[in-house]
């Protein structure tokens, strides 16, 4: 029984009474995915990170059976669950590793969302059920070697060949690329930026795996090379015109990151608390020192605030009220705080914090990527700044 001298420890979610803000269904899907992560992924993730390989096709099938691929989309084999439930799934997956959340996020919020939202009925029927089941893996080709934050400068072009199209160009930093069965490729045309559904077996399409990464090692990252890739007219996404198409997909992915980054931060904090309670320094537990408790308290406050922000944005999205600048607020705050928390937790673990025996340095390395992909912190600052001032400062 707890007493005033040594009260029973609680976790950060209990500190903020998070469970009371969730529905029964939301708690159930969160806990289901948390168990899946603990039983299926955690025992292997350090090894996958170390060797830089992941059984992506095997995991995709398991995630498909779990019902989380495109889970926030309606029909075509998708679960049709709420945005908040999807966010909680991202949180639990990224609490294990950012690479696992990236696999699910790119599949569902980028590739599947693009086809679901902007595609024709035949495209949806062909690809979405297979992707929801994990039998087909998708990737999303927007970023180019010289154009990340400025996608409008893309050089990939699609030109007419009678009624067909020919694509030429290069895409870079593409998650799932080398494992994908289908790629959603954005290209410049005489009619503006358009999207194309490209089976990766199409002649002229090549995916080169990016190696020597020190971040997101448990994730497939690729360069896509398109050289005279001939596509029929019906490969174009009929409803997407201009940059609004790909940017709408990015907002979907950023929403998942708002939740996911806090999952990684929470995992670091839980690890640091457990370590501090058992590690003895000068004949007493590290947790018993005021400096350590100050660090833990400050981090707990930021994790709790980040969770509350994510849940608030989830509720807004479920009501159809979420704006792009609000997503930017969530992405900016939660990724920035998550990486600071990971680094601070590393100091509590000392030298043990740099080994893969503990998850902290792995999360810290992954969050270096999460901080800058789907919009750098600077880009999100400018999005928020424009909303506040009415003045665009991108150029």
UniProtKB/TrEMBL annotation:
Where would I find the Acyl-CoA dehydrogenase/oxidase C-terminal domain in this sequence?
241-388
MF terms in GO: fatty-acyl-CoA binding; flavin adenine dinucleotide binding; glutaryl-CoA dehydrogenase activity
> Which cofactors are reported in the record for this sequence?
FAD
Outline the extent of the Acyl-CoA dehydrogenase/oxidase N-terminal domain. 23-134
Q: Where is the Acyl-CoA oxidase/dehydrogenase middle domain?
A: 139-229
The entry's keywords? FAD, Flavoprotein, Oxidoreductase, Transit peptide
Which catalytic reaction applies to this protein?
A: a 2,3-saturated acyl-CoA + A = a 2,3-dehydroacyl-CoA + AH2
GO terms classed as biological process: fatty acid beta-oxidation using acyl-CoA dehydrogenase; fatty-acyl-CoA biosynthetic process
Membrane-crossing ranges are none
**SUPFAM superfamilies given in the database record:** Acyl-CoA dehydrogenase C-terminal domain-like (SSF47203), Acyl-CoA dehydrogenase NM domain-like (SSF56645)
Q: Which PANTHER family has this protein been placed in?
A: GLUTARYL-COA DEHYDROGENASE, MITOCHONDRIAL
Membership in a protein family: Belongs to the acyl-CoA dehydrogenase family.
**What protein name is recorded for this chain?**
Acyl-CoA dehydrogenase family protein
* Provenance organism: Speluncibacter jeojiensis
């Amino acid at each position: 029984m707890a007493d005033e001298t040594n009260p029973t420890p609680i976790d950060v979610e209990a500190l903020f009474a998070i469970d009371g803000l969730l529905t029964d269904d939301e708690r159930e899907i969160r806990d289901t995915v948390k168990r899946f992560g603990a039983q299926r992924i955690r025992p292997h993730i350090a090894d996958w990170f170390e060797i830089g390989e992941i059984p992506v096709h095997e995991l995709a099938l398991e995630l498909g059976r779990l019902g989380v691929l495109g889970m926030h989309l309606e029909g075509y084999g998708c679960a049709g669950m709420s945005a908040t439930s999807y966010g909680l799934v991202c949180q639990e997956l990224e609490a294990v590793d950012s690479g696992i959340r990236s696999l699910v996020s790119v599949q569902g919020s980028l590739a599947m969302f693009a086809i679901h939202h902007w595609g024709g009925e035949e495209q949806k029927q062909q690809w979405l059920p297979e992707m929801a089941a994990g039998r087909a893996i998708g990737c999303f080709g927007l970023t180019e070697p010289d154009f990340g934050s400025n996608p409008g400068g893309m050089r990939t072009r699609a030109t007419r060949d009678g009624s067909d199209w020919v694509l030429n160009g290069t895409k870079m930093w593409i998650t799932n690329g080398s494992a994908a069965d289908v790629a959603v490729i954005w290209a410049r045309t005489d009619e503006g930026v358009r999207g194309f559904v490209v089976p990766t077996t199409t002649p002229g399409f090549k995916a080169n795996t990016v190696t020597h990464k020190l971040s997101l090692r448990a994730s497939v990252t690729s360069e896509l090379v398109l050289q005279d890739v001939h596509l029929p007219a019906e490969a174009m996404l009929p409803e997407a015109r201009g940059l609004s198409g790909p940017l709408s997909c990015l907002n979907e992915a950023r929403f998942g990151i708002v939740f996911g980054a806090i999952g990684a931060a929470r995992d670091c904090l839980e690890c640091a608390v457990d370590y501090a309670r058992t590690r003895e320094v000068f004949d007493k537990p590290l947790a018993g020192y005021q400096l350590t408790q100050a660090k833990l308290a400050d981090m707990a406050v930021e994790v709790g605030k980040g969770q509350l922000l994510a849940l608030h944005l989830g509720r807004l999205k479920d009501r159809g009220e979420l704006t792009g600048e609000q997503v930017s607020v969530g992405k900016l705050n939660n990724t920035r705080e998550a990486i600071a928390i990971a680094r601070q937790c590393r100091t509590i673990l000392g030298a043990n914090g740099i080994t893969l025996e503990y998850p902290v340095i792995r999360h810290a390395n992954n969050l270096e990527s999460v901080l800058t992909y789907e919009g750098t912190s600077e880009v999100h600052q400018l999005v928020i700044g424009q909303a506040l001032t009415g003045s665009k400062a991108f150029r």
